[in-house]
Amino acid sequence: MFALVDGNNFYVSCERLFRPELNGKPVVVLSNNDGCIISRSNEAKALGIKMGVPYFKVKELIEQEKVAVFSSNYTLYADISARLMNNLARFTPEVEVYSIDECFLRFKGMENLHTYAHYLRESVIQNTGIPVSVGLAPTKTLAKLANKIAKKSPTGVCVLDTEESITEATQVFPISDLWGIGRAYQVKLELEGIRTAAQLRAKPEPWIKHQLTIQGVRLWHELWGRTCIPLKEVLERKQAICTSRSFGKLCNNLDELIEATTAYASRLAEKLRADTSCATVLTVQLLTNRFRKDLAQYNPAISLALSHPINNTPDIVKASVKGLKSIYDPRFQYSKVAVIVTGLIPEQEVQLNLFTEWNGPKNNQVSELLDRINQYYGSGTLRLASEGFRKRWAMKRENVSPNYTTDWGDILRVG
Amino acid sequence: MFKQGFDSKNEELEPLSHPGKASGFVSPAEDYMEGRLNILERLVKDPVNTYYAEATTDELINLGISKGTLFVYDTSIKAKHNSLVVVWYRGEWKVRQLYLIGKQVYLGTGKDTEEPEPIDANELLIRGVVTWSCRPHQTKPRSYVRTR
After folding, report:
1. Does B71 touch chain A (CB under 8 A)?
2. What residue spans of A90-162 are helical by DSSP H?
């Protein structure tokens, strides 16, 4: 049996953990740069605030209804997530952390699943203070479905362990909410008159094989309780890594763009090293603000083949800045820069290129030192000077909460 | 992701990585070396459910807790009669002694002159149980907590 456990309105719940006065009140969390609504309490949903809407569009409603607004504090959410996942992992050795707030667990040879699911939920809520929902079913697809139902149930738990319970649950479940059904699939299936999971399930296998792709066939099997999607316990090496972020304001000054690019490229190099990968291709892209219809749009990008697979900070930064300079055009106002590395190979498999003059070993040492110092003294302590000090391009985070669990200066003050 | 390290060796204070390895005579103690005691093993039983807080008042002075005391609290422990608990009560975070007498809940400060306050359980949120309180003696109590 598979369980999918996820945190309800996770970012909002993290914020409420240290501000209990907000329980029962409308709360929203904004995306980077305070752009869009990315997490809503049930009370905020009831006010009609939709997921993903730009903040400015609902600002009036938010002020009128006294909705509490938070900028996203990913430092806090990451720590609370790690605490949540570790609590869950105590229940079974077979665990797949699926996202910052979702986790698949596998249980074998268990009896009294209902009791156990409730026990799991209650103890995780007691320990973390984060409300969670538990869906339990024979496959991951059905566990996802059960979890959606659990969200709406007052007990927060849904167990689909019999044919009757699965039939009943799929009867009213819209296909658009199924795991792995995108917009295109939804349209295609609806044209065939399939609107619920039960209707899809009722189709004969030859029809499914003929009409759908391999993913669709897997989905169909999973709906019948036959496992096709296993638990991913070992993370695969990433195929590409990207750091991109919007600036706090529009920017067309090359020096500021270089500072921002340096900062993102440094972070990217850190990610590469954490993954023990080296990059062979590096792409830099500049973007103008597509919502500003009054301004000229320009989104140039360049991909550079790196003469040597690298993951050290100085070389990644050098390549990124070179790319940036070659695409920069001062006539436009930019809102975002993205640095992407692809063609990743494992660090140990790097082959030396005889024909380049390359001081990789030295730069690798610099990077190792950077990582050690930043790990010890906190990230960003030691960085390249070209990142700049003023960070005029830095993110807008007007309502960010304290780092209650990762900064001694921010721990709870008690009377 | 699942490992929370207790390993935080300060290389400035401990510059030698293998102080027991001698170049000349093999140390007679080589087979007897054990890990040095680490206070975290005592203070933090469950790293995943342990949090910290700082006392901002002398309210609990009769319990030996003064302003600047660092609390270690664990959210996985069930509060009992006499537990020292971190609570949210009437709009404030507090550390108090919990008394459960019959069906009535009380919060106390340990002061002889004060009767424990009867509490409406619906208004009370118990966030965790204090497992240790650490009080600085050598240095003047210096607050780490930023004033906002």
Report:
1. yes
2. 113-128, 140-152
Structure tokens at B18: 């293998």
Q: Does B44 touch chain A (CB under 8 A)?
A: no
Amino acid sitting at position A243: T
Residue whose C-alpha is closest to residue A284's, from A298, A263, A267, A301:
A301
Q: What are phi and psi of B12, to 5 degrees?
A: -70, -40
Q: Starting from the edge strand earliest in sequence, which strands make up the sheet with A157-159, in order?
A: A95-99, A102-106, A2-7, A132-137, A157-159
Express each pLDDT in A44-56 by its tens digit: 999 999 999 999 9
Which residue ranges in chain A fall short of pLDDT 70? 351-362, 376-381, 388-394
Instruction: Select from B16, B110, B20, B24 the least CA-distant residue to B61.
Output: B110
- ipTM at complex level: 0.84
Dihedral of the alpha carbons of A24, A133, B92, B77, in degrees to the nearest 10: 150
- Nearest chain B residue to A78 by CA distance is B1
Looking at chain A, which residue has its C-alpha nearest residue B49? A127
Distances (CA, A) of A96 to A104, A140, A231, A235: 5, 11, 6, 9
* Entry pTM: 0.78
- Inter-chain CB proximity B54 and A414 less than 8 Å: yes
Nearest CA in chain B to A235: B1
Q: Nearest to residue A250, comparing CAs of A291, A209, A197, A307?
A: A291
A387: nearest Cα among A235, A258, A205, A224: A258
Contact A33, A135 (CB under 8 A): no
Query: Is residue A398 classed exposed, middle or buried when 0-12, 13-18 and 19+ CB atoms within 10 A define those classes?
Result: exposed
Name the residue type at position A127.
N
Q: Which residues pair with A342 in a beta bridge?
A: A281
Predicted confidence band of residue B32 (pLDDT cuts 50, 70, 90): confident
Per the CB < 8 Å rule, is A413 touching B53? yes
Quote the CA–CA distance of A195 and A175 in Å, as a whole number: 6
| DSSP 8-class letter at A54 | B
Partners of A401 on chain B (C-beta within 8 Å) are none
